[in-house]
Design a protein that fits this description.
Radius of gyration of chain A: 22 Å
Shape of chain A: globular
Oligomer: homodimer
Distance between the termini of chain A: 21 Å
Strand content of chain A: 15-25%
Number of domains of chain A: 2
Largest sheet of chain A: 8 strands, mixed
Strand order of the largest sheet of chain A: 9-8-10-1-11-12-2-13
CATH topology of the largest domain in chain A: Alkaline Phosphatase, subunit A
Chain lengths: 398, 398
C-alpha cells in the first residue's frame, strides 16, 4: 500500500466500487449453475463484455475471510496486517463514540434454561426496542475505575464497551456459538489481560442478575473483544475523496475506519443507487455495499440470492449513465447458498473503463470470469487497478 | 504455513492425495501429444470434468525440482526454507536410526578403470545382496572419534552416515555424475567443514582399498551430504492424521520426516490402491505415491510412462468409491520422456470435491489443465486448497 500511496495523484477520474457481499457461489445441484450464472444480468454482462474480468482471491487459496478482512482487502489494506476485532466493527457501525484505549465486544442477548444452558442464541430474536430497553438496564452496572457502556445494535445484538486505565483486549469469547451448553467464563489469553477478564466476568454475573426476569432475553454472550486499531485513511493514502453507501452497521463502521464519509440512505437497493447518484458530484471514489446477497447465501436461500443479484443488475444503469471512469463490480468473498456460509472460493470481478483492455469474457459469472484476462488475482490488486484506470497513479521511475 | 496452522481445525473430511511422480510431460515428436494426452484415462477425465483443474508450479517458473523439494511443496512446506539433503532422504527411506548431529550421504558403488576413471556409475547394477555384503566390509573402516556407518539401500545404492562431535555437512559431492572422469575429492564448502572433508576423503581412500578386488563394484561415489533438519509435523500443523502409501525408500523417508505414518504395501499400483482402501478408515489424509511414471520418464520410455498413467487410471475407481471429500491428483514435477530428466514444466493438477467450483476442463492433460480455473499456481497452495475443501480451515477474522 505504501508504494501505491507514493504514486497516488489527484485526477478528475471517478471510481465506483460496487460490492455484492458474498457474491461468489457454487452450482445448484439440480441445474449445475451458480447463483450468478442463474441470475438474468444483462447489464452486468454488458459491463463484463466491455470490461476486463477475473477472479479475486480475498485472502489467498483456501482461506475464508470474515467480513472485516474481506473488505479491508478490497480497499487495499492487507487483511493480515490490519486485524480488526468484531467488537470494534460493531461499535463503528452504530457510530459509537469510541475513545482511545476502549475495549469493545459484540454481545448477543440469549435464552438460558434454569441450569444456565443456552437454549436460544438470539433470545427469540427480540426487537430492537426491547434490546434498547435492556441495554439501558445493563448500563446501570458499575465498577470502580472502569466504565461499562452498553449500546443496542439491532435485534438481539448489542455492544459492550469498557473504558478505563490499563484494560487489555486479549480475551477469549464467552459465546460458545452453539446451544446446549452454558456461556463460557471469559478467559484471559495473556497475563496482561487477567484483570480485564475478571472485570468482564464480574459484569456478566451482574448482567445475569439484571436480566433474570426478562425471559427470553435472560442472559448475554460476548465475543470479539478488541481495541481500535490505527488504519491510514483512504483519502490520504490514495488522494481520494471517498464516500460509502452502505446500510448494514458493520460495513458503515468499516468504511468510517478507513476514512470514508458514510452517508445516510434508504435500505433498498434502489435507495442505495439513488444515494450514489446524489453524492456522485462531490466524490471521486464511491463504495456501494449490497448486503442482501450475503444474507441470502447465509440463509441457504439460492433463489433469494439470485433475485438480489438481479435487483442490483436492474439498478445498474443508474451508475452506467453517470459515466464514471471506472466501475468495479465484485464481492468481498463467496457465500454459496449450498454452504450457508462464507467460503474460500474466489470471487467474480469486473472492471469497466474506457482505458481497460477488454478480454473475451462476455458474461458476468464465475465460469466466465475464470477465463478473464486478469486470471485469479489477489484482492489487494483491486485498488491499484481501479486507481490506474482512473489515471490516479503516477509513473514509477524515470 | 504458520497461517494455515492457526486456522486448521479437525473435521470428519477426508483427503486423498495421489501423486504420480514426474507426471508432466512434453509432446511426442510424432504425435504432438504428451504422455498424459496419449494415455487413455477415462476415470481421470471424469474427475477433471467434475472437479477444478490447473497447473501446479513446484518451485516457480523455470525451476526444476529434485524429488525432495517437489514433495515438500506438495505437503505445504516451502522447499526453499526446508532444504533436505539427499543423504538424509536415503537414510529415512531405509529407516536408518539417525541420531542428532549425524551427517548422511548417498553413495553409489561404481566401476573405475585402472587409471581411476569411472566407466560405470552403477557398477553394472549389482544386486542388493552384493551391495549388502560390500557395505558390511566398508563398515569395518574406523576413525578415532568418528563412526562411519554404512548401510545398503537398493542395487548399487548405499548410505554413509558419519557420527561424531563437530561434524559439518557443508561438503561438495565426490560423484561427478558422469563417466569418463575420476571421482572428485570431497571439497569443504566452508571453513567449518574442512575437518569433515578430510575425514570423508580419508574414508573414500580406505574404501577404494577395501573394494579393490570387488570389480565391477571397485569404487564409490558420494553425494548429497546433509544433516537432519527439523520439520513441523503435518499432523500438528494441519490437525491431520496422515498416512503414506509409497514403495520407494526416499518417498517413505520423506513422508516419515513430515510426520506421516508410513505403512507397508505390495509394490504394484494395484497393491498400493488396496493399501489405501485398507487404511482409509483410520486416517483423514492419505498420500499415495506412484513412482513408475517418473522412472519411465527418466528412462526416456514414452510408452511405458503412458502405460503407467493408464494403470493408475484403471485403479482409480477404488478411491472414488470410498467417496473421499477431496481427491487431488497431480505430480511432484514433470519428467518428460523426451528429456529423460526432471524438468521445470508445471504439472497437471485436479481437485475433486463436492464443494469445488467446477470449471470447463473435461480432460486431465497438460493442455486442458492450463485452461482450468486454478490457472498456473504455486504447489504450496495445494494443501490450503485441499484442507479448505475438506472443511478443515476456519474463517479468518470476523
Amino acid at each position: 500500500m505504501s508504494q501505491i500511496s507514493q504514486l497516488a495523484v489527484t485526477s478528475p477520474g471517478k471510481i465506483v466500487l460496487i460490492v455484492m457481499d458474498g457474491l461468489g457461489g457454487l452450482p445448484h445441484p439440480e441445474t449445475g449453475k451458480t447463483e450468478l450464472e442463474t441470475a438474468q444480468t444483462p447489464h452486468l454482462d454488458k459491463l463484463a463484455k466491455e470490461g476486463i474480468c477475473g477472479m479475486s482471491e480475498p485472502l489467498g487459496p483456501g482461506l475464508t475471510p470474515g467480513s472485516g478482512p474481506g473488505h479491508l482487502g478490497l480497499f487495499g489494506y492487507d487483511p493480515f496486517a490490519f486485524v480488526i476485532g468484531r467488537g470494534i466493527l460493531e461499535a463503528l457501525g452504530i457510530d459509537f463514540p469510541l475513545e482511545k484505549g476502549d475495549i469493545a465486544a459484540r454481545g448477543n442477548f440469549c435464552t438460558v434454561d434454569n441450569k444456565g444452558v443456552i437454549t436460544d442464541r438470539r433470545a427469540g430474536r427480540i426487537s430492537t426496542e426491547v434490546c434498547t430497553k435492556l441495554c439501558e438496564e445493563l448500563g446501570g452496572i458499575n465498577f470502580p475505575g472502569v466504565k461499562a457502556l452498553v449500546a443496542p445494535v439491532e435485534g438481539h445484538r448489542f455492544l459492550l464497551v469498557l473504558r478505563g486505565a490499563s484494560l487489555n483486549p486479549d480475551l477469549a469469547d464467552s459465546d460458545p456459538q452453539q446451544v446446549g451448553v452454558a456461556p463460557k467464563e471469559v478467559a484471559a489469553l495473556s497475563r496482561e489481560a487477567e484483570a480485564t477478564a475478571a472485570v468482564v466476568n464480574s459484569w456478566i454475573g451482574k448482567a445475569r442478575g439484571v436480566l433474570a426476569d426478562h425471559h427470553p432475553a435472560n442472559m448475554v454472550v460476548l465475543r470479539g473483544f478488541a481495541r481500535l486499531p490505527h488504519l491510514p485513511s483512504m483519502g490520504e493514502s490514495y488522494k481520494l475523496n471517498p464516500v460509502a453507501i452502505a446500510t448494514y452497521p458493520m460495513y458503515r463502521g468499516l468504511a468510517r475506519l478507513v476514512g470514508m464519509k458514510v452517508v445516510d440512505c434508504g435500505r433498498s437497493v434502489e435507495d442505495q443507487f439513488a444515494a450514489l447518484a446524489k453524492h456522485y458530484a462531490g466524490h471521486d471514489f464511491l463504495f456501494l455495499h449490497i448486503k442482501k446477497t450475503d444474507t441470502a447465501g447465509e440463509d441457504g436461500d439460492f433463489q433469494r440470492k439470485v433475485k438480489a443479484i438481479e435487483e442490483v443488475d436492474a439498478a445498474l444503469p443508474r451508475v452506467v449513465d453517470l459515466k464514471p471512469d471506472v466501475i468495479v463490480v465484485t464481492g468481498d468473498h463467496s457465500t454459496p447458498a449450498v454452504m450457508k456460509a462464507h467460503s474460500w472460493h474466489p470471487v467474480p470481478f469486473l472492471l469497466h473503463s474506457p482505458l481497460c483492455r477488454p478480454d473475451d469474457v462476455a458474461e458476468f459469472s464465475e465460469r466466465a470470469c475464470s477465463k478473464g484476462a486478469l486470471g485469479r488475482f489477489p484482492a489487494l490488486d483491486i485498488m491499484p487497478l481501479a486507481l490506474a484506470h482512473a489515471q490516479k497513479l503516477a509513473k514509477f521511475g524515470a
